[in-house]
Amino acid sequence: MDSRTVRWEELLPREFRARQDQMPLVYLPLGLCEPHGHIAAFGLDTFKAVWLCEQAASRFGGIVAPTQGYQIHETGYHRPWLKEVIGDTNPNLGSVPPDVLLRMLLFQLRAFVNAGFRGAVLLTGHHGNQADLRIVAEELMTLRPIRIVTVSDPELARVAFHGDHAGKYEISQLLFIRPDLVDLDRAGDISTSPLGRFAQGEDASEATAGYGREILEHSLEQLERLIRDSLPFEDAIDPLGIEETDEIWQSILARRGEWRTLSERNPDLAREA
Questions:
Q1: So what's the pLDDT on residue 272?
Q2: What burial letters (b/e) apply to 40-72, b meaning 16+ CB within 10 Å?
Q3: Residue 267, exposed/middle/buried by CB under 10 A (0-12, 13-18, 19+)?
Q4: What is the pLDDT of residue 2?
Q5: Helix 98-114 × helix 242-253 angle, to 10°
Q6: Does residue 1 surpass a pLDDT of 70?
Q7: What DSSP character marks residue 7?
Q8: CA 96, CA 78: separation in Å to the nearest integer?
């Protein structure tokens, strides 16, 4: 599967068609610009998702759609967590409300269907919102036979690794992907900086690129399994109009009571209870 790149925005039309003909699968990496302590770049979540999607497309086939550094954060159980780990400091957060993100996602999926894709992977590096992403995918799949895999990166790694926020787990991955965006020498700033903890994990200084590589390779193995389980794809899917997509959106709004991002209870803690 030869081409210069797997990125939709970088492919020429003939290259796009060739990759799509071989594997009509599109990956959407979703991230968030948010604090990850004093030692890591704001875009850690996005870099994880992009790396996993690009590696998957290179190894298993498909095309990677343009991503975004915006996600849901300041609602539901996220709100008290943000107060705990940030306090009154400006978090420099790329946050949008749930209805904005989910409606945008629906129309991104519409674009995928209309571009000729028959499978999609929604991979979020910002954990906790994937249940709401799945609601969007489920409602679309009731009207079109596109196969959609929706997963967060900690879900891929969960069998073998314990996730965290800006601790050994996450920082190790960024150390492997973009070591230039990590400065472990700043780990002690949590006790001296006016920013305070700034969402940094307690074991962040234990991060290593080797550990990050183990996590990411394991995650890719799990992602490949999910992709293979979604096969075979349909031969063709009818395009979606704007009006029909708006009707799907009304179905998603009707399930607003299920949106995890509006819940006051952390879904991970609920699972452990």
A1: 33
A2: bebbbbbbbbbbbbbbbbeebbbbbbebbbbbb
A3: middle
A4: 62
A5: 140
A6: no
A7: B
A8: 12
The answer to whether residues 35 and 176 touch, using CB atoms and an 8 Å cutoff, is no
d(CA 6, CA 27): 10
Per-residue pLDDT tens over the stretch 209-218: 999 999 999 9
Single-letter residue type at 143: L
Per this entry, what is the length of the chain? 273
**What is the SS3 assignment for 146?**
coil
Residue 219's DSSP bridge partners are none
For residue 148, give the DSSP letter.
E
Query: Average pLDDT for residues 163-179, to the nearest whole number?
Result: 97
Q: Is the pLDDT of residue 94 over 50?
A: yes
Through-space distance between the first and last CA atoms of the chain, rounded to whole angstroms: 46
Q: Which fold has domain 8-264?
A: Rossmann fold (3.40.50)
**For the residues of 8-71, what is the DSSP string, one character each?**
GGG--HHHHHHHHHH--EEEEEE------TTTB-TTHHHHHHHHHHHHHHHHH--EEPP-BS-E
**Amino acid identity for residue 264 in this structure:** E
Residues 6+ apart with CB under 8 A from 9: 66
pLDDT band for position 266 (cuts 50, 70, 90):
confident
List the domain boundaries for the chain. Answer: 8-264
- pLDDT at position 269 is 46
Distance CA 117, CA 237 (A): 8
pTM of the model: 0.95
Contact 200, 171 (CB under 8 A): no
Per residue, what are the HEC states of 156-213? HHCCCCCCCCCCHHHHHHHHHHCHHHECHHHHHHHHCCCCCCCCCCCCHHHCCHHHHH
